[in-house]
Amino acid sequence: MQGIYLTIALAPLAAAVIAGLFGKAIGRAGAHSVTILGVGMSCVLSFYVLYQFLFNGMPAYDGTVYTWLVSDGLTMNVGFLIDRLSALMMVVVTFVSLMVHVYTIGYMHDDDGYTRFFSYISLFTFSMLMLVMANNFLQLFFGWEAVGVVSYLLIGFWYTRPTAIFANLKAFLVNRVGDFGFVLGIAAVLRYTGSLDYATVFAHADQIAAAQIQISSSITWPAITFTCLCLFVGAMGKSAQVPLHVWLPDSMEGPTPISALIHAATMVTAGIFMVARMSPLFELSETALSTVLIIGSTTAFFMGLIGIVSNDIKRVVAYSTLSQLGYMTVALGVSAYGAGIFHLMTHAFFKALLFLAAGSVIMAMHHEQDMRKMGGLRKYLPITYWTCLVGSLALIGFPGTSGFFSKDALIDAVHLSHRTGHWYAYFCVLSGVFITALYTFRMFFMTFHGQPRMDHHTQEQLHESPWVVTLPLILLAIPSAVIGWMTVEPVLFGDYFKGALHVLPANDVLAEVGEEFHGSALEFLWAGCKSLPVLLAALGVLTAWWFFLKRPDLADAAERRFKWLHTILVNKFGFDWFYENVLVAGARRLGGGLWRFGDQIVIDEGFVNGSARSVGWLGSVMRYAQSGYLYHYAFAMILGLASFLMWLLWRT
Amino acid sequence: MMFNTHLLSLLIWLPIIGGFVTLGLNDRGAVAKWLSLFVSGMTLSLSVPLWTWFKSGTAAMQFVERTPWISTIHSEYFIGVDGISMPLILLTTFTTVLIVIASWSNVQKRVAQYFAAFLILEGLMIGVFAALDGVLFYVFWEAMLIPMFIIIGVWGGPRRVYATIKFFLYTFIGSLLMLVALIYMYLKSGSYELAVFQRMPLTLHEQTFIFLAFFAAFAVKVPMWPVHTWLPDAHVEAPTGGSVVLAAIMLKMGGYGFLRFSLPMAPDASRELDWLIIALSLIAVVYIGFVALAQRDMKKLIAYSSIAHMGFVTLGMFIGFQIVANTARTSGIELGIDGAVVQMLSHGLVSGAMFLCVGVMYDRVHSREISAYGGVVNTMPKFAAFMVLFALANSGLPGTSGFIGEFMVILAAFKANVWYAFLAATILVLGAAYTLWLVKRVIFGEIGNEKVAALEDLNGREFLVLGVLAVAVLLVGLWPAPLLDVMRASTQHLAEQLLLSKIPL
Predict the structure, then answer these.
(1) How far is CA A329 from CA A25, A245, A497, B246, in A?
(2) What three-state secondary structure class fits A466?
(3) Are strands B62-70 and B75-81 parallel, antiparallel or unpaired?
C-alpha cells in the first residue's frame, strides 16, 4: 500500500512541477491535462483506500517514508499515518480539488496566468495531502506551512491588484501568529514526550498530563493545558477563529476556484482536522476544550451576523464559512470530534458548491460581485440556480440534506454536553441557525430572484456557464444533498472513527446522541424535522424572503432604524481597524523608534562615533601639552615634582 | 599520496596563489575573470572529496597536516577539519564560485584586482576554518580583514570610507582581545595547539577573562546586539559580491569561534555567563526584528534580518546550559548546537541569495531604496519567482533550509524555558513580516515607475547563480539528514566538552 500512498501524495506534486516549470512548453491544454491527471489519480486512489477501510477492514497504516534528520537521538521522519480519519480527509481533499481543477478550465479561461494557476492548485493539493497524511508533527507542520504559502500565492494571484497583495500578506502574517502558537505547542509536545511521532506522543500523553509548566517563579500551569492551547492557537490561525479570523474574508481577493478549494473546503479546515487528530491530548484538558468551545461559538455566532450585511456575494459565503468553521470548532469543544469532522466533510461539499456557484454567477456578470447589481438570474443560469439551491439548503440544514445531519447532530451534542460554557455555546449555535438561513437566503434571493438590477449591456450577455463549470456544480450538488443521509449512521453513530479519534467515555456526547435515535438515520431525521433548529432555519428563510424579496423597503428601514448595529457589523466589529491602526502601526512605529533611537542615536552616535570623538577630543586637549615652549615644560615639571613631594609627605 | 594528505593546504593556498596571479594580470580583465573562475571552480571541485572522504563516525580532526612553523613560540602549521568546520569550508568554496559568476559583468574598474581579492579572501577564510593552531588561526583571522576592507573601500558605495573604517575598527579591536587570550593560554601551556587550550585546566576566574576576550572578537563578527551597527553600514556600501561573502561566510566566523574557542576552552565561564549570550541573542531576534521592519533600504533590511537570524545561532549554542540547569538532563544540548550550525549554513545560502537578488536589481536600477521599485514581477517574472522563494526561505518556511535551524533551536529553547522559546518564536511573525512586506513592496503590485517598466528579466548567468542556490536551499530543506550525519560526532564531542568542568581541583 505504501506505493499507493506515495502516488496519492506525489502525483499532484509532479503535475504541479511540470505545469509550473514547463508551462510554456506544454501550453494551456497541457497544463490542465497534466494537473487533472495527477489530481484525478490521487482522487481515484484515495477512494480506493477508503473502500479498503470500509469494506475490507484494512488496518491503519503507520510508516516512514524517509528520515528527515537525526539529531540528539531524536529522529524526525517524513511518514504517513493512513487511518479512517486521514482516508476520509484524503477523499474530501482530492475530490473537491478535482472538481475545482475541472471548473478552473472554464473560470480562468481568459487569464494570462492559466498554467501558473493550475500549477499552484496542484501544489496545494500535494501540500494538503501531506498535512492530512502525516504521522508526525514535523510533517504536519510542513504541510501546514506549505498550504499557507500556496494560499499566499493564490490570494495574491492577481499580483497587480493592491487589494490582493494586501490580503495575501495579511493572510500569511495572521496565520503566522497562529503558527507561533503551534510551534510552541509542538515544542511542548517534544519536551514532555521526547518524540514528534503521533503514535509515541499519544502513547505518552499521560506524561504531559502529569507535568507542570513553569510560567513564572510563582505560577505553574498544567503542561497539557498549555500544550493544547498552543496547538489550538495554530488551529485558530488556519481555521480562522476569532480573533485570528480577519484574513479569511480578505482572502476572497483570490480567484473564486481557490476560494472554494482552499478557503472553504480544505485548508481552512486543517485546524479542525488537527485538533481532531490531537484528540488524545485535548481529551486530557477540560480547560483547553472549554476554550475551544467558547472561541468556536463566538466565531459561529458573530461572524454569521456580518454575513447579513455584506453585499459582496463571495464575502457572504466567506462569512458563512467563518461561521461554519465556528460550528466545527464547537463540536471539537464538546468532545464530539466525529461530529466536527462530519460537518467538515459535508461543509466541504456544499460550501465548495456554493463558492463555485457564486463563481459561475460572477462569470456571467463579467466579474461583478455586488449582489445589489444582480437579481433575477434564475432564468439565465438554470443549472447554477438549482445547484446553488441545493447548496443553500444544505448550508441551512434543510431536513434530509447533508448539512442537516451534520449540523443537527452537532447541536444535539452541544445540548447534551456539560462542559464549561455549554450554555453560551448552545445559545450561539441555535441562534446561528437562524442567522445562517437569513444570510444564505438573502444572498440567494438577491442573486437569483426579484427584478434584474444589472445594466442593460450585462443583462443582454447573460448566459449559463460552459459544461466544465456546470459539471463540477452538479457533481458537488449530489453529495451535498445525499452524503449525510448515506453516511450518518456509520460515521457518527457507528464506529467509523474507532481508533482514529479518541474520546473519554465520560465526554462521549455523540454516543448519547446516537443512543437517543438508536443509531438510525431515519429516526434522527424524523426527530430533527420537529426540532428547534429546523424551525429556526425555516424562520430564517421566511425572514429573508420577507425582507429582501417581498418588502425590500423594510430591510432599508430596519437598516436605518438600527444604524448603530449596522455600523458595527459593516465595520466587522472593528477587528481590522484595531489590528491595522494599533498593532501593525504600533509595530512599525516601535521598529522605527528602536532603529532611530537605539541603533542610530545611542549605539552609533553615543558609543561608536562617541568613542571616536572622545579620542579625538582627548588628542586635541593633549595637544596643548605639546606646545614646544621650554617654560611650559619646566613649569609642568615643577608642578609635577611638587605634587609628588606633597603626596609623599602626606603618606608619611 | 600528496593530493590526499595535503588537500586542505591545496584548498587554502590554491585560491591565494591564484589570487596573486590574478592580481598581476592588472588591466587584462577578461583573462582575470576566466582565471578566477577556473581557480574558484578548481577549489570547489577539490573541496568535494573533503565531503566524500570524510569519516563521519569520529570527532577526531581529519585531513590533518602538521609541521613546525614559528618554532620560537612553538607555533605550528597545523590544520584539519571536523564535522563542524568541513561543511563551512564547503559553503565557502561554493559561495565563492557563485560570487565570481555573479560579479562577471558588473564590475567596471580594476576588474583583475576585484576578482583577486575574492580569491585571496576565499583561501584565508578556509584557513580560518581549518586552522588548529592559535597563531595560525589569528593570522588568517586578521588577514581576512584586508581583502574585505579593500573590497568595500575600493568598489563600495558613496559612504564606503566610513563603512570600512567602522568595519575594520569594530572587528579589529575585538580580535586584539582574542589575541591576548591566546597568548595567555600559550604562556600557561607552552603550546598554541587549540586542542591543548581546550584540555588545559583553568580557574573560573581565568576562564571568565578568556571568555570575555573571545566574546569581544566573536560577538562583533556574528554580530550580536549591541555591537552590530557596523554590519548594516558595511552591507549597504559593499558591492554585491562583498555583501554575499560578508553575509554568507564572514558572519559564520563568529559562530564558529564560539564553537571552537569559547565553549570548549572556557566551558565553566560559558555556563556562568550563558545568561548574557541568551539575553543578547533574544534581543537580537526581537529588537532587530522590529528594526528590520522600519528599513527603507533593501540591503539594510536584509542585513538586519541577518542579525536576527544569527541570534538563533548563538542562542542554540548556549541554550544547553540552561537545559541542564532547569531539567537536570542533557537531552537538548546537541539539538541546540546542531540547530545553530545548520542555521549558519542555511543563513549562508539564503542571505547570500537575498543579497544576490538585490544585486540583480541594483545592477539594473542603481538603487537600493525599496520605494524605487514596485511591480518587478511584471517585467521580471523569473527573477520574481526566485526572490519569492528566497524570501520564503528567509521567513523560515519548512521545506527550505531556513526552517531547520530555527525549528531545532526553538525546540531546544523550550526545553530550557518557555519564555526563551516564546521570544525566539516571534521570528515566525517578525521574520515573515519584514521579508514578505519587502516582497510586497518590491516585487508585487502595478509597475512602479518607468525604470521598473524597462527592466529585463534574468540573463543566463544570473539564472544559473540563483537557480543553483534555489536547488541548494530546497535540497537542504527537504533532506538535511546527510548534513546532520556529518556533524553528529563533532557536536556530540562538543556537548561532552561543555559538561566537563575545567576548573582544577
Answers:
(1) 45, 13, 18, 49
(2) coil
(3) antiparallel
B74 phi-psi bin (left φ>0, alpha ψ -120 to 50, beta other):
left
Question: Distance between alpha carbon A555 and the CA centroid of its chain, in Å?
Answer: 32
Phi, psi of A261 (to 5 degrees): -75, -55
Q: How far apart are CA A257 and CA A120, in angstroms?
A: 12
Residues 139-168 in A contacting B (C-alpha not used; CB under 8 Å): 141-142, 145-146, 149, 152-153, 156, 159-160, 162, 165-166
Contact between B136 and B130 (Cβ < 8 Å): no
Q: What is the DSSP letter of B65?
A: E
**Element spanning B364, H or E:** helix B333-365
Cell numbers 615634582 correspond to: A641
Hunting for cell 578566477 — which residue is that? Answer: B36
Which pLDDT tens digit goes with each residue over B386-445?
999 999 999 999 999 999 999 999 999 999 999 999 999 999 999 999 999 999 999 999
**Count of CB pairs separated by less than 8 Å, A with B:** 148
Cβ(B491)–Cβ(B314) below 8 Å: no
Q: Report the distance separating Cα A193 and Cα A197, nearest Å.
A: 10
Backbone angles phi, psi at A369, to 5 degrees: -115, -5
Contact check, Cβ <8 Å, B484/A70: yes
Q: Which of B230, B287, B332 sits opposite A594 (nearest CB)?
A: B287
C-alpha separations of A321 from A243, A607, B297 in Å = 15, 55, 40
Give the cell for residue B455.
527592466
Beta strand extents in A32-123 (DSSP E only): 61-71, 74-82
Average pLDDT, chain A: 90
Distance (Å, whole) CA A356 – CA B99: 49
Q: Is there a cis peptide before residue A505, judged by omega within 30 degrees of 0?
A: no
> According to the model, what pLDDT value does residue B2 have?
59
Q: How far is B247 from chain A (nearest CA, A)?
A: 20
Reported pTM: 0.93
SS3 A463: coil
- Comparing CA positions, the residue from B253, B187, B246 lying closest to residue B214 is B253
